[in-house]
Amino acid sequence: MEKTFAIIKPDAVSKGYTGEIISRIEKKGFKISAMKKIKMDKKTAESFYAVHKEKPFFEALTTFMSSGPAVVMVLEKENAIAEWRELMGATNPEDAEENTLRKDFGKNIDNNAVHGSDAPETADIETRFFFADIECV
Ligand code: UDP
């Protein structure tokens, strides 16, 4: 079994999509190993997205990610990293395929509803950023 780290971003939480997104996650066969609602401050969002520090969208991204509550999760499944990215859809909801979360719940590339790790190392780093071992069942 592989684990990946996921976020239901502030846009989706504030619009009341949390339950529907969790339901879609479970229907796809992911086991939720850890989950909690958090509110990042700006510094925490900057630290989480440090890899994008030099990108033109860094300021907007970290302001958005610290704008309200988000739900952080660890998802477990065979091939979880790739399968979660498939369920999320393309970064830009306009390019996302039918029946993906970003197509159904994302508004635009800045407000794209969900986050997912892109590799095992980042999944581990991102999980440890938010969760203690005791929280991952
Ligand atoms: N992002 C953005 N503008 C861009 C590119 C990315 O606001 O032009 C945001 C978007 O929310 C995306 C996040 O930065 O989800 C991280 O970008 P990445 O390229 O890692 O995309 P992802 O892995 O989330 O699909």
Briefly, what is this?
The chain is an alpha+beta fold and 137 residues long. It has helices spanning 10-14, 18-27, 42-48, 58-65, 80-88, 101-105, 120-130, and strands at 2-8, 31-38, 70-77, 114-116.
Walkthrough of the structure:
Helices cover 40% and strands 19% of the residues. Helix 3 packs across helix 4. It has a single domain, classed as Alpha-Beta Plaits, CATH 3.30.70.141. It is built from 7 helices and 4 strands. The chain is globular. The chain has 137 residues and is of the alpha+beta class. It has a 4-stranded antiparallel beta sheet with strand order 2-3-1-4, with helices on both faces. The mean pLDDT is 98.
CATH domain topology:
Alpha-Beta Plaits
The total count of helices amounts to: 7
Q: Percentage of helical residues?
A: 40-55%
Write down the CATH class. Answer: Alpha Beta
Average pLDDT taken over every residue? 98
Characterize the biggest β-sheet: 4 strands, antiparallel
CATH-level-4 superfamily name: Nucleoside diphosphate kinase-like domain
Uncertain runs with pLDDT below 50, 5 residues or more?
none
- Provide the gyration radius in Å: 14 Å
At CATH level 2, the architecture is 2-Layer Sandwich
Question: Could you tell me how far the N terminus lies from the C terminus, measured between alpha carbons in angstroms?
Answer: 13 Å
Write the H/E string, N to C: EHHEHHEHHEH
- Shape estimate: globular
Count of distinct strands: 4
The oligomeric status of these chains comes to single chain
Widest sheet: strand ordering: 2-3-1-4
How many discrete structural domains? 1
**How much strand content do the residues show?**
15-25%
| Ligands bound to this protein structure | uridine-5'-diphosphate
Class from helix and strand fractions: alpha+beta
EC number: 2.7.4.6
Keywords: ATP-binding, Cytoplasm, Kinase, Magnesium, Metal-binding, Nucleotide metabolism, Nucleotide-binding, Phosphoprotein, Transferase
Protein name: Nucleoside diphosphate kinase
Subunit structure: Homotetramer.
